């Protein structure tokens, strides 16, 4: 049971305080927390669950805003963290991003949202669709409407029917002029390539994002050509369990708008689309660095936005790096970033140069880890393919769109 | 929404005091109060917004209470919401004014719009003013019977709020029974869930006094109720599902088929998008199958995939919470996860608290088949930029080596570390090689060859240096230049600050002497002389012991120092299996994240002075609410403690005398003139000195010595306290707070604790007793490792002049901060000295 929620700005100022139970939590807890944060130099280094002298604190940080929740009783930790994440998502969705100003400008809406999301320390509803029916987002449309109709309240006067309906994620019978549904496969590839150039770990975390604008109560079935490759799946509450269990078919009544239908994991992939080969040789106080990048197995679509980023070890005094393709920049915190963009057909991009070590050091002993980024439109690298999407219970034929995108997630090459 | 009282007292300088603005707002609100003109609502809305924003930044706007209530007559729902927010915040501090709001809230509870009915009811029950409860019962009763589910949802949790304001009113109005009826019959699942959570809390706290309540609480876990919830679980919201699953985890099924029914029913919950639901389900599965070993193992197999997915999806914060649970399971059944070791590989970007958990898991799952790969991976981390993680991974390699049978490859890796020439890598590795040799003496040949190449000058860390010296002594027959290396270390005896190293050095030199006498004689003489002159008690004693042992009989010395040793087979585990089981029973709770069962951080005896900490928080900002900082019995306890601490002193004084009595007659000065004369002078001092307490023998005394160090006179005598403090000083908490607020800080100092002091601080009560022995009394304390905070006071003897101290101690960094306030500023320096000397003696008892 959470007792209090605070929102802190990136300078530690309390922007908002929402007491949830009779046991008032004093604000001084935020000062305590902030002292901890400052002493750590970086709030992301603080664990998300901390014991303060008086309370247990859950904290997450999003876009510089710290969401803090306090409790004095034992409770499932993931419930506290998960809830704060939802609060952050909903606020970001409502306010179109998170920052200090937008929260201060709209604090009344934030209070209203928190009021509906949690009562007496226990989370109620965090489903954005339902909240949207109770509290209208502060967008331009509703402002214009308010002026035109003279009704300046930003709250619909009807209560959401969904709280009583059997599909709690769907508002009552939305109507759309154009019925359309988009299904996106978004995949992230996590890979670790060790010092000897061996792929030690490669897996894909994927999500099926659906954006549905369908009238009435449509019933959808989505099937994959090769569902057997999926290692583990998690579903939005709208997905029926039995059809998946017996036939690996996703059968569901979708929420209106954008939502994450399913997430999955595909383990033990054998190869990566590109290779990155760093090489460091050090001798007599200098270190020669060269990095080669190229296509290993062609996915059939263009590989875009290729970047290689690494942190220079603290013992390096200066670096002189250049590349034959793309741009290299070294930031103040000794992060070196090489953005390559698209890999050209005719040559392999390479980065080379020398690093000067601290005086007195002969050889480099701490080696940087190279973090690689890329994007491939139109391909799901796991190989997952959508077979069919059937829509029942809809008067007119809707438009159906499918897309796929693979990005590098935690893709690291060690040297 | 800071407490109103606070801003009245001390508006922080960075914020506007808000006085002018508030009176301005007051005027404007008055103007708009009765206005029904078009646009009036918009104007009011702006004003309300301003009021709320002042409230949010901590300016006290409670003086607007009357005006706000007058303005609240409106049909605009946003205005109403802001008004409810305001009222809820200030009603508790202004119970008389709160009465004003009852009227309009009660009216709103009968509004035709269900949303307003619900909101009004919620606000009404959030006022938390005890003398208004009579007005709550009516609206609450009708709220529970409302036709709209939203209102019923609000009412169900409002009952709990009422219960917290006035338990008797709530029970007398028969609300629990109404909730129970709703819980079992309402069509809306959110209403059902709220009823459940309210009832659980009400019945749990009533159970101690009312038999009926405890019966009702039991009934929640009865088969029909559990099945009623389970059958509808999919209709519940995700958060309510967590609640239900939590309840089910406590249910004891009557037979095995029931267990399987429940697990079948809940299996799809493992694939829920909300991680909290997944973890709650896992808890149910684990609890249900505890008695069936083979099924329990299948459950592990089943939950593995969802857990691993949860770790890799979602934000870093979420994955940390899941990892903590995974960590628990991995530690319980490492074999089951041995093929998933790749999931525990660390990624570059992960925060170190995540990496640490992963390293521990990698260590646990290592077995014959995967060790090579895991160790290869760990070796890559040793070159990590993040030094603590690099250290941690070297330690992990060592731990794996200690738990394996075939350590061939690992030893090679460890030895490669030594060639990396990074001082922290070398330091960690030396410690590990030492442990490894204690377990596998057969590897000594390979290791010694490499260790012999390390210059002791490159090793600075005490633990590593001690390990190196241990090896030099133990394997001096194999290491060509061991005597000379040891000799050079002995030459720099005075630069060696760690007693642990000096202790090891004494033993190593003696071992070396016994093996290669002619080469080591000089070093031994120098070491013993330096040791006898050492100010550290343990070092002194050990040198004296060796010296006499050699004098008595060299072959006996050989038997004592170089006995045939048995290889260590198992190193002690840090956490008892009982504790691990307790944590497992509390799966899906904070215990798992802290890796401590909850009784250790929630029970009174374990959390020490945690109960004061509420007041502590307000003390530091100077709030006036703490009218009972020190409960009465605490004073009594102090008296008892005082008695206790004096008697302890008597005892230790006795022991000290014995020690010197034992020392004195044995002395004769023949063969070692320098050491001996120093020894004599030291003995002379020790007899006259004020007995203080010798350091505890918690240092890693070389185990072959195995002798408890007797209590004996210690280090130079402390300067006589220049300030005489009143032993029986009395100060009541109110005065303390008042003084603390009024007096300026006259002295603020940083302080480093001795390691013994830090170690002893795990028992803050002992610390308080210790300080009391020095006439410094504690008035409030709190905190949890590693941060402790204490408030002390002391009074000058014969004069009513008081000193107040705030002392913050961080045990992990062994640093403290002291802030002193004094009636008599001129004496604060003197007081600070005696305070610090008292502090420095702590832990040496």
Structural account:
The complex is a heterodimer of chains A (415) and B (845). With 415 residues, chain A is α+β, with helices and mostly antiparallel strands. In chain A, strands 11-13-9-8-23-21-16-19-18 form a nine-stranded mixed β-sheet, with no helix packed on it. Chain A is built from seven helices and 23 strands. Chain A is flat. By secondary structure, chain B is mainly α. Chain B is 62% helix and 5% strand. Chain B contains 42 helices and five strands. Chain B has a five-stranded antiparallel β-sheet with strand order 1-5-4-3-2, sandwiched between helices. In chain B, a hairpin with a 6-residue loop joins β3 and β4. The two termini of chain B are 47 Å apart. At the A-B interface, β2, α1, β4, α2 and α4 of A face α3, α5, α7, α9 and α12 of B.
Largest interface, Cβ cutoff 8 Å? A-B, 94 and 119 residues
Tell me the strand order in the biggest sheet of chain A: 11-13-9-8-23-21-16-19-18
- If you average the pLDDT of chain A, what whole number results? 81
Q: Tell me the structural class of chain B.
A: mainly alpha
What portion of residues of chain A belong to β-strands?
Answer: 35-45%
Q: What can be said about the biggest beta sheet of chain A?
A: 9 strands, mixed
Q: Please write the string of helix (H) and strand (E) elements of chain A.
A: EEHEEEHHHEEHHEEEEHEEEEEEEEEEEE
- Tell how many strands the DSSP assignment of chain B holds: 5
- How many helices of chain A in DSSP terms? 7
pLDDT < 50 stretches of chain B: 1-16, 603-721
Helicity level of chain B:
55-70%
Distance from N terminus to C terminus of chain A (CA atoms, Å) equals: 47 Å
Task: Profile the largest sheet of chain B.
Answer: 5 strands, antiparallel
Give the overall form of chain B.
globular
**Number of DSSP-assigned strands of chain A:** 23
Instruction: Report how far the terminal alpha carbons of chain B are from each other.
Output: 47 Å
Rg result of chain A: 26 Å
């Amino acid at each position: 049971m959470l007792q209090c929620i605070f929102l802190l700005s990136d300078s530690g100022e309390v922007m908002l305080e929402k007491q949830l139970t009779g046991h008032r939590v004093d604000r001084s807890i935020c000062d305590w927390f902030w002292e901890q944060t400052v002493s750590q130099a970086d709030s992301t280094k603080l664990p998300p669950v901390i014991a303060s002298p008086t309370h247990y604190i859950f904290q997450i940080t999003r876009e510089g805003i710290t969401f803090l929740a306090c409790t004095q009783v034992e409770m499932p930790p993931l419930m506290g963290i998960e809830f704060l994440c939802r609060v952050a998502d909903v606020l970001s969705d409502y306010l179109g991003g998170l920052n200090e100003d937008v929260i201060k400008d709209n604090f009344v809406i934030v209070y209203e949202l928190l009021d509906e999301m949690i009562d007496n320390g226990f989370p109620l509803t965090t489903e954005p669709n339902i909240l949207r029916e109770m509290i209208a987002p502060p967008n331009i449309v509703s402002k214009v409407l308010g002026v035109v109709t003279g009704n300046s309240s930003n709250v619909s006067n009807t209560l959401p029917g969904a709280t009583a309906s059997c599909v709690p994620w769907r508002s009552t019978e939305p109507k759309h002029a154009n019925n359309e549904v988009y299904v996106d496969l978004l995949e992230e590839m996590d890979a670790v390539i060790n010092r000897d150039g061996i792929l030690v770990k490669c897996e894909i975390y994927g999500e099926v994002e659906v954006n549905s604008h369908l009238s009435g109560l449509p019933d959808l079935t989505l099937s994959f050509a090769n569902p057997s490759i999926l290692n583990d799946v998690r579903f939005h509450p709208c997905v029926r369990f039995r059809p998946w269990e017996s036939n690996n078919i996703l059968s569901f009544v979708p929420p209106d708008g954008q939502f994450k239908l399913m997430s999955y994991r595909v383990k033990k992939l054998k190869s990566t689309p590109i290779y990155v080969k760093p090489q460091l040789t050090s001798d007599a106080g200098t270190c020669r660095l060269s990095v080669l990048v190229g296509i290993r197995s062609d996915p059939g679509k263009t590989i875009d936005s290729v970047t290689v980023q690494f942190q220079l070890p603290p013992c390096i005094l200066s670096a002189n790096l250049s590349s034959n393709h793309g741009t290299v920049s070294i930031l103040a915190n000794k992060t070196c970033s090489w953005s390559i963009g698209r890999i050209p057909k005719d040559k392999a991009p390479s980065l080379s140069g020398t690093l000067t070590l601290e005086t007195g050091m002969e050889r480099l002993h701490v080696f940087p880890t190279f973090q690689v980024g890329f994007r491939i439109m139109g391909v799901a690298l796991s190989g997952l393919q959508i077979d069919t999407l059937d829509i029942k219970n809809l008067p007119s034929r809707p438009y159906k769109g499918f897309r796929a995108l693979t990005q590098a997630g935690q893709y690291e090459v060690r040297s | 929404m800071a407490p109103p009282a606070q801003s009245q007292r001390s508006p922080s300088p960075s914020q506007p005091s808000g006085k002018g603005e508030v009176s301005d707002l007051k005027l404007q609100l008055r103007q708009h109060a009765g206005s029904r003109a078009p646009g009036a609502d918009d104007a009011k809305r702006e004003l309300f917004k301003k009021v709320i924003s002042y409230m949010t930044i901590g300016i006290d706007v409670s003086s607007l209470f009357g005006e706000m209530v007058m303005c609240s007559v409106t049909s605009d729902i946003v205005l109403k919401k802001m008004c409810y927010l305001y009222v809820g915040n200030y009603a508790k501090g202004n119970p008389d004014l709160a009465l004003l709001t009852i009227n309009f809230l009660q009216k709103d509870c009968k509004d035709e719009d269900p949303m307003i009915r619900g909101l009004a009811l919620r606000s009404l029950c959030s006022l938390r003013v005890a003398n208004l409860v009579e007005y709550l019962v009516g609206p609450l009763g009708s709220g529970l019977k409302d036709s709209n589910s939203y209102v019923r949802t609000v009412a169900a949790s409002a009952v709990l709020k009422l219960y917290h304001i006035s338990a008797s009113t709530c029970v007398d109005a028969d609300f629990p029974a109404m909730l129970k009826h709703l819980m079992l019959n309402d069509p809306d699942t959110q209403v059902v869930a709220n009823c459940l959570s309210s009832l659980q809390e009400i019945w749990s706290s009533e159970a101690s006094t009312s038999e009926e309540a405890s019966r009702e609480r039991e009934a929640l876990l009865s088969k029909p109720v559990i099945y009623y919830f389970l059958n509808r679980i999919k209709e519940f919201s995700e958060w309510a599902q967590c609640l239900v699953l939590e309840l089910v985890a406590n249910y004891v099924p009557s037979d095995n088929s029931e267990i399987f029914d429940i697990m079948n029913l809940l299996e799809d919950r493992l694939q829920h998008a909300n991680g909290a639901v997944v973890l709650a389900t896992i808890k149910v599965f684990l609890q249900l199958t505890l008695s069936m070993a083979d099924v329990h193992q299948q459950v592990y197999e089943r939950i593995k995939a969802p857990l691993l997915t949860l770790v890799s999806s979602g934000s870093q914060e979420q994955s940390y919470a899941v990892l903590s649970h995974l960590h628990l399971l991995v530690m319980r059944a490492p074999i089951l996860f041995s093929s998933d070791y790749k999931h525990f590989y660390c990624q570059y970007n992960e925060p170190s608290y995540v990496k640490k958990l992963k390293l521990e898991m990698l260590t646990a799952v290592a077995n014959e088949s995967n060790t090579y790969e895991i160790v290869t991976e760990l070796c890559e981390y040793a070159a990590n930029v993040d030094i603590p993680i690099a250290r941690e991974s070297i330690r992990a390699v060592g731990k794996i080596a200690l738990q394996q049978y075939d350590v061939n490859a690992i030893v090679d890796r460890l030895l490669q570390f030594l060639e990396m020439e990074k001082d922290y890598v070398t330091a960690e590795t030396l410690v590990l090689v030492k442990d490894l040799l204690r377990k596998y003496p057969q590897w000594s040949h390979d290791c010694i060859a490499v260790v012999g190449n390390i210059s002791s000058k490159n090793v600075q860390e005490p633990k590593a240096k001690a390990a190196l010296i241990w090896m030099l002594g133990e394997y001096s027959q194999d290491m060509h230049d061991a005597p000379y290396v040891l000799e050079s270390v002995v030459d720099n005896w005075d630069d060696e600050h760690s007693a642990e190293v000096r202790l090891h050095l004494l033993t190593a030199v003696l071992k070396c002497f016994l093996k290669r006498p002619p080469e080591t004689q000089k070093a031994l003489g120098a070491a013993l002389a330096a040791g006898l002159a050492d100010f550290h008690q343990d070092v002194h004693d050990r040198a004296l012991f060796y010296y006499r042992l050699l004098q008595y009989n060299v072959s006996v010395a050989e038997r004592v120092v170089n006995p045939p040793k048995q290889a260590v087979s198992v190193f002690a585990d840090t956490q008892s299996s009982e504790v691990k089981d307790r944590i497992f029973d509390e799966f899906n709770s904070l215990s798992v994240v802290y890796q401590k069962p909850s009784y250790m951080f929630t029970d009174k005896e374990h959390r020490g002075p945690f109960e004061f900490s509420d007041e502590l928080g307000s003390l530091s900002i100077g709030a006036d609410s703490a009218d009972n900082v020190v409960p009465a019995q605490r004073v009594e306890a102090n008296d008892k403690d005082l008695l206790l601490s004096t008697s302890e002193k008597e005892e230790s004084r006795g022991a000290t005398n014995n020690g010197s009595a034992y020392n004195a007659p044995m002395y004769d000065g023949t063969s070692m003139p320098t050491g001996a004369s120093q020894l004599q002078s030291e003995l002379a001092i020790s007899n006259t000195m004020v007995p203080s307490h010798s350091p505890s023998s918690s240092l890693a005394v070389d185990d072959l010595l195995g002798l408890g160090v007797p209590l004996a006179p210690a280090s130079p005598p402390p300067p006589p306290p220049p300030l005489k403090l009143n032993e029986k000083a009395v100060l009541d908490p109110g005065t303390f707070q008042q003084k603390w607020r009024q007096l300026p800080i006259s002295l603020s100092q940083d302080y480093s604790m001795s390691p013994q002091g830090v170690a002893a601080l795990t028992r803050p009560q002992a610390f308080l007793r210790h300080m009391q022995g020095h006439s410094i009394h504690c008035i409030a304390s709190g905190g949890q490792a590693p941060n402790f905070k204490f408030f002390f006071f002391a009074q000058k003897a014969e004069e009513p002049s008081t000193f107040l101290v705030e002392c913050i101690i961080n045990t992990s960094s062994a640093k403290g901060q002291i802030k002193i306030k004094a009636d008599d500023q001129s004496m604060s320096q003197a007081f600070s000295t005696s305070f610090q000397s008292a502090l420095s003696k702590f832990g040496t008892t």
